[in-house]
Design brief:
alpha/beta, 9-stranded mixed sheet, two-stranded antiparallel ribbon
């Protein structure tokens, strides 16, 4: 049995497929081989795709996600349609580089929010009561906004270079669902051997905390 391998164009090194790290699969499905081919993208190419309203694949410590520019109406609509078509229960989540970037997407930032996000050493998704700077396609449907800081250095650098967060649909899997194959046009990141599902909490305007998933 052979692992999927591909050339990381931004490092010049051969590595396992980012979404199949340490997985050995005897019969690679054709859709996954085609998907892997589309994952070979430089950060500059991925930035161009996002600005053109395309969807990309993203992998970090929480597993695989589909991502788009949070302010592109067409891209956000495609992401929400994917969620609807799959009956996917997890919320679209803005992925940010650091705690400072959270304030770009939250209308009223509780005082405790910065410390919760900045000093979290495990994946943490926080639901805030009112979002902003995200497509109205999402906010008109649900004003509440979910935000998570990626703990993956590569993803943090990419988001920093993009100068804004990414709206993601998290699947928390090591492999991309087949339904994503025709939608994704590039990808970044590498799934770790053990996926860490984030804690999910709701944070009120006055700092009230409600855990949805511990």
């Amino acid at each position: 049995m052979q692992p999927y391998e591909f050339l990381l164009s931004n490092t010049g090194q051969t590595s396992f497929c980012p979404f199949a790290h340490s997985l050995f699969i005897p019969e690679p499905p054709s859709y996954l081989c085609e998907f892997i081919d589309r994952m070979i993208q430089t950060p500059r190419e991925l930035t161009h795709l996002l600005r053109q309203g395309k969807l990309i694949g993203l992998a970090d410590e929480t597993g695989f996600s589909v991502a788009c520019d949070p302010q592109n109406d067409e891209a956000v609509a495609k992401l929400l349609q994917l969620q609807f078509d799959m009956g996917h229960p997890l919320l679209p989540t803005v992925l940010v580089q650091d705690a400072n970037q959270v304030s770009l997407y939250v209308a009223k930032m509780p005082e405790i929010a910065f410390d919760l996000v900045e000093f979290a050493n495990k994946p943490l998704t926080v639901l805030y009561e009112q979002g902003k700077n995200v497509s109205s396609v999402l906010l008109d449907k649900e004003p509440e906004i979910a935000v998570r800081r990626s703990l993956n250095a590569e993803i943090q650098r990419f988001i920093g270079g993009y100068s804004k967060g990414l709206l993601t649909l998290p699947f928390e899997t090591s492999m991309p669902p087949k339904q994503t194959q025709d939608l994704i046009e590039g990808g970044i990141g590498q799934v770790v051997s053990v996926i860490k599902k984030p804690q999910i909490m709701r944070l009120g305007f006055n700092g009230e905390i409600e855990f949805i998933r511990r």
